[in-house]
Design brief:
Blueprint: E1 5-9, H1 14-28, E2 33-37, H2 49-63, E3 67-70, H3 82-95, E4 99-103, H4 110-125, E5 142-146, E6 156-159, H5 164-172, H6 196-213, E7 218-221, H7 232-235
Parallel strand pairs: 1-2, 1-4, 2-3, 4-5
Antiparallel strand pairs: 6-7
Helix pairs in contact: 1-5, 2-5, 3-4
The structure holds zinc ion.
Residues 10-11, 14, 109, 112 line the site of zinc ion (ZN).
Length: 245
């Protein structure tokens, strides 16, 4: 299925946490969106492979995305190898997205950093026709990065005020991973992300970026290269100020 936007995460739940509001907004606007987890998250302290697959599907439904898939790269071993690059190239060629979302490369979890490089390289090589996967070559117009634990000076921020509630619902669909009053069901191992403070911090970050553009909630993105802009006067026209206080 051809997609307008394809968001990659190293693990199920990475996309929801990092840029879930924007993915939902793009679906709301009628763009075809997809989410791919490179791994099945089998190393997660809480939850099993099976529960995480179900949670991933539930979150996809809440986000209104057209396609979601988990690849079989080993959790904890997301390496930039030829084999893994080909797995990502096949997905990019199958979905032919205009833009690809990838994790920012400064990370706490090593898989996220490797995923960032793997996706960037695969997006480039997917455009070379002599890399034969039996599919037509396709290079996305832009790879755009979303934040994980650490932040960056954003290239732009997206107003997600109307999507923020659904973003939280999509995150809470991962009931084995995040704060849950019934957490004993998933074992009592507290993790970095299972405390109520983790979700509070996420909401605070959305509010912080919202404050930069005068809206309740927003998500930041980073573009590595300078962005082409042919008519800055038109771009910063009256519509640019819509909703900005
Ligand atoms: Zn992750």
């Amino acid at each position: 299925m051809q997609l307008d936007l394809l968001a990659f995460g190293a693990h199920p739940d990475d996309v929801e946490l990092g840029c879930g509001g924007t993915v939902i907004k793009m679906s709301d606007l009628g763009h075809k969106t997809g989410v791919i987890a490179l791994t099945r998250g089998e190393l997660g302290t809480r939850g099993s492979k099976k529960t995480r697959a179900q949670e991933f599907a539930n979150a996809a439904k809440i986000m209104g995305i057209a396609a979601h898939k988990m690849l079989d790269i080993a959790d904890g071993n997301v390496a930039v190898t030829q084999e893994n690059k080909l797995k990502v190239i096949r997905e990019i060629r199958a979905h032919r997205p205009r833009i690809v979302l990838a994790p920012y490369w400064v990370v706490r979890h090593p898989d996220h950093g490797h995923a960032s490089a793997l996706i960037r390289e695969a997006a480039f090589f997917a455009g070379l026709k002599k890399i034969d996967t039996g599919q037509a070559p396709h290079r996305p117009n832009k790879v755009i990065y979303y934040p994980g634990r650490f932040e960056f000076q954003p290239s732009f921020v997206v107003d997600i005020s109307e999507q923020q509630e659904r973003k939280l619902q999509a995150i809470q669909a991962y009931s084995s991973q995040f704060h849950n009053p019934e957490k004993a069901k998933y074992g009592n191992d507290a993790t970095n992300i299972s405390s109520p403070e983790f979700l509070d911090a996420l909401v605070t970050r959305d509010k912080q970026y919202g404050s930069y553009i005068g809206v309740p909630f927003a998500e930041p993105f980073l573009v590595r290269e300078p962005m082409r802009l042919d008519d800055p006067v038109a771009f910063f026209g009256p519509e640019y100020l819509t909703g900005i206080q």
